[in-house]
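Progress narrative, work stream C.
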Amino acid sequence: MKIIGRKEKISLPEWGIKNISAKVDTGAYTSSIHCEFWEERLENEVPVLYFKVLDPSHKKYNGKLFHTKSFTQKKVKNSFGHEELRYKVSTKVLMFEEEFEAEFTLSDRSKMRSPILLGRKMLKGRFRVDVQEINLSIKSKK
């Protein structure tokens, strides 16, 4: 297993996002990403989720409207201890030049320092966390 720090740079190639900072949180089960717009629509009687990730003021924001038929909803306790119903989607994550599929809940993280949180489900079996380090995925390329 690779060792990662408390913050890491990741890429989300299907969403056109490269080298964005993400906070590692072993206390969170599911990963999450900041999302201010999401809308579920019926198309030919099939539910389709439309969404935009990141905040328009974020330097990695690209304004793209994504859509998927493959989504679920999940009850999650937020960082303030309140239960929320969130949409959950999957996408590819690129770290240490390795690509793998991961699930993210779409949530309003505007009050948080990091727009992306990496939870235990994504980390388990792949990474160990050294809380004294940051950006080990970048340092390993040097």
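Work stream C, second folded protein:
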Amino acid sequence: MDNVEKKIVDALLLSYQQVGGINRIDSANLPSRPGIAVLCEDLLQILFPGFLETDAIESENLENDTSELLAKIVSSLNKEIKRSIRLLGENESESKDPSELASNFLSELPTIRGLLRTDVEAAYEGDPAAQSFEEIILAYPSLEAIAVQRMAHVLYIYGIPLIPRMMTEWVHSKTGIDIHPGAEIGSHFFIDHGTGVVIGETCVIGSNVKLYHGVTLGARSFQKDDEGNPIKGIKRHPNVGNGVVIYPGATILGGETVIGARSTIGANAFIMNSIDEDSLVALSEVEHEIKNKRSHKEALDNEES
């Protein structure tokens, strides 16, 4: 190590002593980001058998292949859950059995598959460009984001820290779709295109809901306690009723905001109050000035000359 590198190391070590809160030294490991990424990929593979493997799956090998993949997932999930519950208090962490939590979560996978089938149907019926279920499973980022969120939501309900959010942030980085694991989402959910969609932690979304890209279901200004700190664990995000369609760029905010069933929210709408059932919300018509480009340029040239 040369003198320059030695100075940098010394400065970093001093920083580690002086700057707290972003170090984790002499402590047990927390869940691994690469490990969670692999776990998500394995879980998606078990949800959609035959779609994400390199080699085809034969029916006579399905039980063996599924058993092997499940065993890999169990081992990884047990390890990551054990790491994550270290963030809980000692008494609470000791009361949670990683293997039992993993088993309970994995027992929910058949139910999650049933919901995902409805999401695929919603995408096929809601997008004229969709040619097949195969195309939706392999090429629609929204389905991947929804699948990971539905799994992460179960872990979130079980009170497992870190892992649910790491899962949804992994798929967020891949798809541009940000759905908090706490959000409750009904069946037949479809996000068309999807880029830039944000769905907050306390959102409740009914069945047969369709969103387009750039939709935000977010919070208004945060309530704070007497010491000025944001209050955690309160309802901050809107509810969306059954059969609602929300077009691109719409922003809907607030924990008391309810979008009534079967309503349509037009593009770029900004909503902070509840909307009755069967409503159509649209911006007032905006006038556009249309000019002939060639004539406009000639007029400018004449002015300059």
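The two ends are 68 Å apart (CA to CA). No further action is required on this item.
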